[in-house]
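Quick question, first post here. What does this chain look like in 3D?
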Amino acid sequence: MATSTPHRIYAMSFASVYPLYVAKAEKKGRTRSEVDEIIRWLTGFSQAELESHIAAKTDFEGFFAAAPLNPARNLITGVVCGVRVEAIEEPLMREIRYLDKLIDELARGKAMAKILRTPVGA
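> Answer (accepted):
Ran it through. Tokens below.
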């Protein structure tokens, strides 16, 4: 029985991709603090925990394994990299694509309340 090779992004450090998220947001007039807010919302990390993972160069697999993930993340739907995020079956890839989708929404100018799936009137 053949086993599939894990995707190479799983072994990449989150710290190597984080500046790309920030650059994408800042290019569109958004801020690093908004990127951090999105990451904290998705992962459940505090700012100190987020910064610790960046400093430690935690890989994506370890980064998401350590995260007490937001149960509302299943409200994230749509297409990123040509794939519907809600249709991604591999759990770690789905978490990574959720983050990609949120950063895309930020760069497109979507309001933070909508990005963070805040219920109307909350």
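The mean pLDDT is 92.
The two ends are 50 Å apart (CA to CA).
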